[in-house]
Design brief:
Layout lengths: L3 E2 L9 H7 L9 H18 L5 E4 L3 H10 L7 E6 L2 H12 L3 E6 L8 H10 L3 E7 L1 E2 L4 E2 L2 H8 L6 E5 L11 H4 L3 E5 L11 E5 L1 H9 L9 H8 L10 H17 L1 H21 L3 E2 L9 E5 L6 H12 L1 E2 L1 E2 L8 E5 L6 H17 L8 H11 L3
Parallel strand pairs: 1-13, 3-4, 3-5, 5-8, 8-9
Antiparallel strand pairs: 2-10, 6-7, 9-10, 11-12, 12-15, 14-15
Helix pairs in contact: 1-10, 2-10, 11-13, 11-14, 12-13, 13-14
Bound molecules: pyridoxal-5'-phosphate.
Length: 380
């Protein structure tokens, strides 16, 4: 049976990119690699919409998250972490691991943080040095209002905004310089349509000022070393050569498609998915603003998501993600990032309908596919 990966990371990798990565390995201290690296640097700046350097780390997204913290903050610094899901919780764990005085702003799962709560926390305690948030909280499918939060932090010289853009960068607009983000991290196995293994990070001028006094331990993830080397089109340590060659090909594809068109693609696929699911009587887990990276769908409670996920796999070869923690067995999470097209999305919805029908769920069979098809392909 053919396999279809619909998880919100790792995602499906286009075959033309896989072919690029199948070419014989090249050494990284060569002119040939340096020219690929130069191209990739420009491409990443385009996707981040920044004049700053975007570092390429041989680590999964969490490595860049750790890098964001250790390159800017100092022992005992007070930080506010938005915790509205598993990845917000991870910001908290990283900050505590490095001895930061961590205050968690708890957000009910499925909701977006209210920027007014962040402003209140910063006004109340002027010694807070950073706000850490997810642009898109992949465990719940909720989008947090990065721009509105930046409007609060941008004019405070002594507060950084550190954004986990792992399912945000390249998915929806997050223009780094314009919004005034201070550090933003990304990951290869998301909108970049690559295998896992690379993560990215950019730093603002304000973040570099923090870097001057930052005393947290750092070696492998030292962004100063990354910056110095990037200017010479190389990395301080052996880069993930194969993934960077794949990245060059992906970024070429993105340049051709255009940033805005990429954002429209994710927006359309996610809208079709949400409306298709609603048309068959299913609820979307997100209560405020859904991230276009993925849709979190509440399975019929009498069936539960685990059975749905199992049936999708055994009958259609489809892999989707279950919920985590309190959402485990309650929701399934389906991706709109990676090598996923309109036809794939429509196929997924028809598969869900088939599976739910067999599991005894009563609904208007075909209504989801019809609704999604109207959105994706027009109804005339
Ligand atoms: C929003 C977000 N942050 C962090 C991570 C962790 O990244 P990684 O698993 O690549 O370390 C993920 C991975 O799914 C994510 O979606």
């Amino acid at each position: 049976m053919k396999n279809y990966i619909f998880t919100p990371g790792p995602v499906a990798v286009p075959s033309e990119i896989l072919i690029e990565m199948a070419k014989p390995i090249m050494h990284h201290r060569t002119k040939e690699f340096e020219s690929i690296f130069a191209e990739v640097r420009e491409g990443l700046k385009y996707i981040y919409d920044t004049k700053q350097e975007v570092f390429i780390l041989a680590a999964s997204g969490t490595g860049a998250m750790e890098g964001a913290v250790v390159n800017t903050l100092s022992r005992g610094d007070k930080v506010v972490v938005v915790n509205g899901g598993k990845f917000g919780e991870r910001w908290g764990k990283i900050c505590r691991a490095f001895g930061l005085d961590t205050q968690e702003l708890m957000v009910e799962w499925g909701h977006s943080v209210d920027p007014a709560d962040i402003k209140k926390a910063l006004d109340k305690d002027p010694s807070i040095r950073a706000v850490l948030v997810q642009a898109s909280e992949t465990s719940t499918g909720a989008m947090h209002p990065t721009r509105e939060i930046a409007d609060i932090t941008r004019h405070r010289d002594d507060v950084l905004l550190i954004v986990d853009g792992i399912t945000g960068v390249g998915v929806f607009p997050l223009p780094f310089d314009e919004i005034g983000i201070d550090v933003m991290v990304g990951g290869s196995q998301k909108a970049f349509m690559l295998p896992p293994g690379l993560s990215f990070a950019a730093m603002s001028e304000k973040a570099w000022k923090f870097n001057k006094t930052s005393d947290l331990p750092k070696y492998y993830f030292d962004f100063k070393a990354a910056q110095k080397n990037a200017e010479k089109n190389t990395t301080p340590y052996t880069p993930a050569v194969t993934l960077i060659i794949g990245l060059a090909a992906v970024l070429r594809r993105f340049k051709e498609e255009g940033r805005e068109s990429m954002f429209r693609r994710h927006a359309k696929l996610s809208l079709a998915m949400r409306e298709g699911m609603k048309a068959i009587g299913l609820d979307i887990y997100v209560k405020d603003v859904p991230s276009p990276a993925l849709t979190t769908v509440v399975a019929p409670p009498e069936i539960g998501s685990s059975k749905v996920i199992k049936a999708l796999s055994s009958e259609f070869g489809i892999t989707v993600a279950d919920g985590q923690d309190q959402a485990k067995g309650v929701i399934f999470r389906v991706s709109h990032i990676g090598d996923i097209e309109k036809t794939d999305t429509l196929f997924f919805i028809s598969a869900i309908e088939s599976v739910l029908h067999k599991l005894g769920y009563k609904f208007n069979y075909g209504a989801g596919t019809k609704k999604a098809s109207e959105i994706l392909f027009g109804d005339k």
